[in-house]
Design brief:
This protein is of the alpha/beta class and 278 residues long. α7 links the parallel β4 and β5. The protein starts with a helix and ends with a helix. It has a nine-stranded mixed β-sheet, with helices on both faces. Helices cover 42% and strands 14% of the residues.
């Protein structure tokens, strides 16, 4: 199957919401791929699928299905992995199957302390051959990607819209840099615009792709805690950076620590887990 037929197939899978996961998996595992069983469930005709696939390929977007050998190994072992991933980048399978990966998350409006902590810890991770994963959001996420790239490290951005669209808009240049030097991943087909429910759903991919989730700074009731919750359900290690008790910026981190998260004071706390995850 050539690249455009594979993308057409993946677009069909994404559109076939009436098929349950077992049926999708059985179809994906049938090689070579055959789009005919899926076509009756898809509202798009072949010509429109071809147009969409052609646009995606010209934008450098590829796809991988659950059951493919290149599908992310860690994510495939979770209960809520999507049937299709769309991505931009080079050597994607080697990157998302890197021997040790850490998801770095935190506040969209971090304090100076949160920014300083993220710069220090992420720079050490990048220089220690650790894959840094984050969500390209404002604040801690964007900084984690930037610091990783500046230190010649490996990074993956997991986005809540199509991999061809930048959100937030001010991260457009950063997203393009990640696509050139790392990988941008989405469960949504090209052209999909961000919607509120997509962001908490995206968090299960952030944790599912990693060995460890590191929370840099989070307020109580922060969306970051959703990622930590998914991580716990998926059997991932969760570490949190403590903060000042005089400010509410780290209230979410303190909650995680009370609930049993590991204490994160330096990159060494994360790197010490590398041996345990192998």
């Amino acid at each position: 199957m050539d690249a455009i037929d594979h993308l057409i197939y993946c677009l069909l899978v994404s559109a076939c919401r009436r098929l349950d996961r077992g049926e999708l998996r059985a179809t994906v595992l049938a090689k070579p791929y055959d789009i005919r069983p899926l076509a009756p469930f898809c509202p798009l005709d072949r010509a429109e699928l071809e147009r969409r696939a052609d646009r995606a390929l010209r934008a450098g977007i590829r796809s991988v299905c659950l059951g493919d050998p290149d599908y992310p190994l860690r994510l495939a072992r979770t209960d809520s992995c999507p049937p299709v991933l769309y991505f931009r980048g080079q050597d994607a399978a080697a990157r998302w199957n890197h021997p040790f990966s850490v998801t770095v998350v935190g506040s969209r409006t971090p304090s100076d302390y949160g920014l300083a902590v993220t710069r220090r810890i992420v720079a050490e991770l990048a220089r220690s051959d650790t894959l840094v994963i984050s969500g390209l959001a404002r604040g801690i996420d964007g900084l984690a990607h930037q610091v990783t790239l500046d230190n010649h490290g490996l990074t993956i951005a997991v986005v809540a819209q199509g991999p061809d669209l930048a959100y937030p808009p001010e991260h457009a240049r950063l997203m393009e840099r990640i696509a050139r030097q790392g990988v941008v991943i989405s469960e949504h087909p090209p052209g999909t615009r961000p919607k509120r429910p997509y962001f908490p759903a995206r968090n299960r991919l952030l944790s599912g792709l990693s060995d460890v989730v590191a929370v840099m700074e989070a307020r109580p009731k922060s969306g970051t805690l959703i990622t930590a919750g998914f991580a716990a359900d998926q059997g991932r290690e969760v570490l949190a950076v403590p903060g000042s008790i005089l400010a509410g910026d780290s209230g979410g981190c303190h909650q995680l620590l009370r609930e049993g998260a590991g204490l994160l004071e330096s990159a060494a706390d994360i790197l010490s887990l590398r041996r345990e995850t192998r």
